[in-house]
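## Example record

The block below lists the input lines for one assembly entry, exactly as stored, with component labels intact.
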Amino acid sequence: MHQKTLVELGAGLRQGEYSSEELTRVCLDRVSALDKQLNSFITLTEELALQAARDADARIRSGEAGPLTGIPYAHKDIFCTRGVRTSCGSHMLDNFIAPYDATVTQQLNAAGAVMIGKTNMDEFAMGSSNETSFYGPVTNPWDSETVPGGSSGGSAAAVAARLVPVSTGTDTGGSIRQPAALCGITGLKPTYGRVSRYGMIAFASSLDQAGPFARTAEDAALMLGAMAGFDLRDSTSVERAVDDYTGGLNESLQGLKIGLPTQFFGAGLDSAVAAAIELALDEYRKLGAVITEISLPNSQLAVPTYYVVAPAECSSNLSRFDGVRFGYRAEHPADLEDLYKRSRGEGFGAEVKRRIMIGTYALSAGYYDAYYLKAQQARRLIREDFMRAFEQVDVIMGPTAPSAAFRLGEKADDPVTMYLSDIYTIAVNLAGLPGMSIPAGFAADMPVGLQLIGNYFEEARLLNAAHRYQQVTDWHARCPQGYE
Amino acid sequence: MAIEGFEVEKIAHLARLGIDPDDVPEYARNLSDILAFVEQLNSVDTRGVDPLAHPLDAIQRLRPDSVTEADERDNFQQNAPLTEAGLYLVPQVIE
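Predicted structure tokens for the full assembly:
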């Protein structure tokens, strides 16, 4: 049963072949059996899950089931879940029981989806390998010596290992697409403002966006349909109707104009990854797409721009963790300043502290113009590159990550090298565009992700392009050994 | 841009971040590396370019100034490390 997609499971549930309770137990049992190795979950919510599954079964029996009703999912531990610990992968929030639900949580609950637990992640979503988590690293189901990517590493590994059919993630600089690529699954980062950020613990508010992980584009489309929508409680939520993400999945790609940014195929790209991407593009040619080279001349500015903008916003957002209202509090503070400093110093890990300090520096008196203002100007240049490209092409494609999964510890001591793992994904966040990663072959037996980038609110077009590719290839159906 | 140890301590103080004195040299090295990397931005001419704060150039929505949330103080304070009579406790500030 665990090999079935969300679409297949939904059909089985509605036809009464099995109940959501049975399906949920299968997932919970798989977690018990397999997650010691993966460490993809921080918290398992067994009792709540079984109750939600029984509620879903009642709803299915009454004929009121939607596509997600009764489907088990794993929820990144960055989304607030009322009454359930929401740690954000940090010692700071190890004892935090969310007092309310995130909008995404509410919407998935309302759709009847069954949360089985909260997944491991880089601390406060700051990382590209899942190694900065307070709860220890997640390992990649394809090779336990390698990383699953990050920051949504637990959610990606759980889907790749067939512990759950779908999961949630968030993507600030690649945190959905890069782990999807490294774990060989499908992940989608929507347009900025498409999915509500309410109740999603903030890292860099002008970049953060939630989206789904699944094994197929069709499943991702159904998840996105449930997650997306305008929300008054998120001040940057976009007031716009949600598109039908499944209706156009099968549309022909005849004449689809695909642009390849020359900058995504230069030095730094692993040759085996490049070869897999070339083969994937050949499939698109066979499907009728027309492929042309394009230029994103400012793309080399993306990572440096990001490492000003994201830390600046992070230093501001994380100032709320002060040891007073919630979260970790240092013992026996000498005075208020000591309480702040030790609670934050003991509660945050090294990467979070580095980013808070970079952001504090970039925003401090005398440096604001040189760093933050300059980065916000560069950000506009990056966005304009994409806007010019979308005058010529419908979809931009390239590799999601410069290499397949790297080894645990390989980049952990060198922040700048780690930051370059997101070299192809970060510009998309800076511009606020939707992006996807889909499985597109292997490099030395590890999965390779093909990235698809669309114009604003063109998630349906990306899903269509991904779905058609998945109809003629089977990379997305490959299962890591030991998890069949 | 090389960051010296004393600057790390100053930045950490501004961020109210306690750091172990033994870790200061490593933070100095990491922060210097990151800032050196970021300085690539200086190679680009941004004269006359408007800073971009929101990718869709959205305007902040306004809403009526009315109460919409119920009082959930007790619920929220369950997560507080130390409270008394509905108040958050901190070390004494005024002698």
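Chain B touches chain A through 52 residues (CB under 8 Å). The radius of gyration of chain B is 22 Å.
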